[in-house]
């Protein structure tokens, strides 16, 4: 079994995907496997069949289902999902893997900085408010002035770039396929917490993020996913406080 499985789902934008794949292949550690999950035919123009394992799903597979398919097909103890538009940096894996030396840590968030401005933080993990809002922690902060931000506890990693123990992924049942990827990650993190484990940010594990990879388009479907997450976890976070704050969280999201 490999120590690490790197899973790259191929969405519609081939250029973003190819930039991500090239950065992963250039910087990945030797003892790791790379899997590309695609729902549409991909003709492998660069002849990577020997270096990369290709996993095809049904044409109508959701993004969450594609990520799960890659996890199912992989063999690593640690699963690393990195989506198109996220660029791997030199030694981005090593620091993240060291965080798993703590048996209570079951998910690790790398530090995502702007692809055009490495001083600008795009995400230092995720937070989840009592009222039910998923927030990118540290977004907009300057790296040189962010020590307080980087020390704060997080809810979990964003699914555009996150590391997970395989056994916790199996125990939870994978990422919820009824949710879009921008809700499936915080849903997974809350489930992990309910089992008594935690997520952590690793500031020395750095990826560069393009705007296309992290910008979350508001839609009716994304709103429904966010509501499902809230009602799935409100009880464990305290019904009274959650219900009192939820209308304000919904209003904030709408605005």
What does this molecule look like?
With 255 residues, this protein is an alpha/beta fold. It contains nine helices and eleven strands. The chain has helices spanning 14-27, 63-73, 92-99, 147-151, 166-172, 181-194, 211-214, 220-237, 239-254; strands spanning 4-10, 32-38, 53-56, 78-82, 86-88, 105-114, 121-123, 126-128, 134-136, 161-165, 198-209. It is globular. 42% of the residues are buried.
Concise overview:
This protein is an alpha/beta fold and 255 residues long. It has 9 helices and 11 strands. The radius of gyration is 17 Å and the shape is globular.
Radius of gyration, in angstroms, nearest whole number: 17 Å
Structural class, from secondary structure content?
Answer: alpha/beta
How much helix, percentage-wise, in residues? 25-40%
* Share in β-strands: 15-25%
**Mean pLDDT level:** 87
Multimerization status: single chain
Q: What is the end-to-end distance?
A: 47 Å
- Overall shape: it is globular
Count the beta strands: 11
Biggest sheet statistics: 9 strands, mixed
Query: Low-confidence stretches at least 5 residues in length (pLDDT < 50)?
Result: none
H/E element sequence? EHEEHEEHEEEEHEHHEHHH
């Amino acid at each position: 079994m490999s120590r690490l499985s790197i899973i790259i789902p191929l969405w519609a934008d081939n250029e973003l995907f190819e930039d991500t794949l090239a950065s992963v292949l250039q910087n990945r550690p030797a003892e790791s496997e790379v899997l590309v999950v695609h729902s549409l035919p991909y003709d492998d123009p660069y002849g990577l069949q020997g270096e990369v394992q290709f996993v095809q799903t049904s044409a109508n597979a959701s993004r969450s289902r594609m990520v799960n398919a890659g996890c199912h097909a992989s063999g690593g103890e640690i699963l690393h999902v990195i989506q198109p538009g996220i660029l791997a940096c030199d030694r981005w894996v090593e620091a993240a893997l060291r965080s798993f030396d703590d048996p209570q840590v079951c998910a690790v968030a790398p530090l995502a900085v702007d692809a055009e401005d490495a001083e600008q933080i795009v995400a230092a993990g995720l937070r989840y408010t009592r009222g039910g809002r998923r927030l990118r922690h540290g977004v907009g902060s300057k790296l040189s002035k962010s020590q307080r931000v980087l020390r704060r506890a997080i809810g979990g990693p964003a699914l555009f770039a996150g590391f997970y123990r395989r056994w916790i992924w199996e125990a939870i049942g994978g990422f919820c396929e009824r949710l879009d990827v921008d809700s499936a990650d915080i849903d997974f993190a809350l489930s992990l917490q309910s089992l008594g484990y935690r997520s952590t940010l690793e500031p020395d594990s750095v990826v560069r993020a393009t705007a296309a990879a992290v910008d979350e388009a508001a839609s009716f479907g994304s709103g429904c996913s966010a509501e499902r997450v809230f009602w799935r976890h409100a009880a464990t976070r305290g019904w009274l406080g959650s219900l009192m704050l939820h209308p304000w969280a919904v209003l904030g999201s709408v605005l």
